[in-house]
Amino acid sequence: MVLDSPMTSPHSDQLLARRCAQICREYFKGKEITNLLVVRWGKPWKTKLGHIKPLRGNVQYGSIIEINTVFQDPRVPQFVVDVTMLHELIHYFQGFGSNHPRKHRHPHRGGSVTNEFREFGWVELLKKQNKWIKENWVKMWKEHHAQYKLSRIKA
């Protein structure tokens, strides 16, 4: 499994949402999106690649997945974005930030996400992402964070 299909404009929330839908269809067959699922670019967070949370604080309204804006950089390989999306979708289907029944008490306790990556045969892809993050993250984040701060000052 290689998730390397390019997105035509990495800045588009709409294309990011389409990519999420494609990943759901291809890799989460038989699982349903049971509430409104919004997917968009978030902020240039230093310590997280993405997150999922209830929309407006209530999963009955829907769920929102946000992906780190550093990943909009054209130097970021598509598989890095895709693995982050897979990670957040695992949380969604495990009942974190969604209206699915919760499978675990805590989202990462006991390696529940890694176990799902293993179960689906995605461990090599996860390792590939981890290697890329280890080699590139700090420098890229610093560049994007500086730009983000400047844009906030100008606004």
Layout of strands and helices, then pairs:
Layout: H1 13-27, E1 37-41, E2 50-54, E3 63-67, H2 78-93, H3 112-119, H4 123-154
Parallel strand pairs: 1-3
Antiparallel strand pairs: 2-3
Short description:
With 155 residues, this protein is mainly alpha-helical. It has helices spanning 13-27, 78-93, 112-119, 123-154; strands at residues 37-41, 50-54, 63-67.
Kindly state the percentage of residues in helix. Answer: 40-55%
Q: How much beta, percentage-wise? A: 5-15%
Topology as H/E string? HEEEHHH
CATH topology: Zincin-like
Return Rg in Å.
15 Å
Text of the CATH class = Alpha Beta
Annotated CATH architecture: 2-Layer Sandwich
CATH-level-4 superfamily name:
Metalloproteases ("zincins"), catalytic domain
* Mean pLDDT rating: 88
Outline the low-pLDDT stretches.
Answer: 1-10
Structural class: mainly alpha
Summed up, the helix count is 4
Main sheet: strand order: 1-3-2
Q: Number of DSSP strands?
A: 3
Total individual domains: 1
Shape: globular
The termini sit apart by 42 Å
Largest sheet: 3 strands, mixed
Can you give a write-up of this model?
By secondary structure, the protein is mostly helical. The protein has four helices and three strands. The chain has helices at 13-27, 78-93, 112-119, 123-154; strands spanning 37-41, 50-54, 63-67. Helix 1 crosses helix 2 (78-93). The radius of gyration is 15 Å and the shape is globular. 23% of the residues are buried. The model is unreliable at 1-10 (pLDDT under 50).
